Known about the structure:
By secondary structure, the chain is an alpha/beta fold. The protein has one domain (about 10-195): Rossmann fold (3-Layer(aba) Sandwich), CATH 3.40.50. Helices cover about 35% and strands about 25% of the residues. Helix 5 runs antiparallel to helix 6 (about 190-195). The longest helix is centred in the C-terminal third of the chain and has 24 residues, at about 165-190.
Amino acid sequence: MFLCFYDFMKLIIGLGNPGKKYETTWHNLGFLAVDALAASKPEMFLKCKQSAKFKAEVCEGSELEEKIILAKPRTFMNKSGQAVKAIMSFYKIKPQDLWVIHDDIDIELGRLKISHNSAAAGHKGVQSIINEIGSQEFVRFRLGIKTRGQGQIPAEEYVLQKIGKEDKMIIDETLKETLAALSVALMEGVTEAKNEFN
Length: 198
């Protein structure tokens, strides 16, 4: 049973596909970012568990007077919105308090872009969220995965490829930058994070 006693809440969703097969693919950067955030603050995120009710893996924590929920939908990418809607409905979270971390094939590898109230632009996980909650007024942390080899195969195949060793080094740096951006966004606001990291 999840209980909530906080007036201010943030739901941080990492998008990806469940299962070992997909762990180190481009499409799972959202999962990797959420895992990295939980690991960086073990004293904060003490309650992590699989939730059949939410169709997601959920971690609860708090920063100052704000409750923070981390979640990784277990519905597969194209149905991510089902889990997001269930969590938002239970906690009564508004779209503007939803932050989604995901890969973005239109942004160069190594770059992070923070956006708000923007269309899915072909990302099926993001589109699923928009469809389910009826709004695009949420914050997105978009991690670039565009490489030279990306244009040689269809996008839906590329995003499911394993990340190569050299690219993984770049991704590791991007994840560090993402954690820094999340920290600034939580402490100072999304606008400040945009100004610093975009």
